[in-house]
């Protein structure tokens, strides 16, 4: 599924923090038992869409903090989500989706600065 294309560039065109339009009250959510069993990991996921999606109505933000008993909880505080727009000089059909580490690692998924989520929109 595509040739090995490692020599393409990704240029960031815009960076901003997107928060929900309607302010929400800060609140705490306890982690599930599954969340407590698994070690904390940062996972990169990317999706391909034909049309841009509306984001300002759906993206709030949160951060994982410890409560007074030392258990992790999610603090939902509407700080916003790091949102990056970028352009790549490669076609999707040229990427190796069988082994994405070869072609997209560090290029299509942004590094998380704050909170628990970062979003990057990439135009190719």
UniProtKB/TrEMBL annotation:
Domain of life according to the entry: Eukaryota
UniProt-listed InterPro entries: CAT-like_dom_sf
Gene3D superfamilies linked to this entry: Chloramphenicol acetyltransferase-like domain
Pfam families xrefs: Transferase
This protein's name: Uncharacterized protein
UniProt source species: Mucuna pruriens (Velvet bean)
